[in-house]
Amino acid sequence: MPILVCGGSLRQGTPYATTMKDVLESAGIPSSSIWTEMQSRSTHENAVYGSPVLRKNGVKRIALIVEASSMPRAAASFRKEGFVVIPMPIRFTQLDIAAKDFVPHWQAIALNGENIHELVGLAWYRLRGWI
Length: 131
What we know:
Elements: E1 3-6, H1 16-26, E2 34-37, H2 43-56, E3 61-64, H3 71-80, E4 84-87, H4 106-128
Parallel strand pairs: 1-2, 3-4
């Protein structure tokens, strides 16, 4: 089963797709099973630039693997491109009820930043008509 890795470089350097391909190959995935898209710089562009690669190979249904917090936006982006999406989220945030959860600390601030990023991203994508 082929794997599409998406992601260009946000700055000068190695594209994210190249790094992901290298990791997959080091895990034993044959290079011929890994498709790359190295232009995209956002979730929206992952879907827009990755879609032609998938369509060219007759793919209509995908298992989408992204961080759990990004899944709603990513899945909606690929659905907008016409794909049936099977979400396969990774990196879930686990909340535990401990005393430290009621005291401000940097982890809570970072998590709030991620959540705000995703909420604003969803609103922005809807406003732009991307989802």
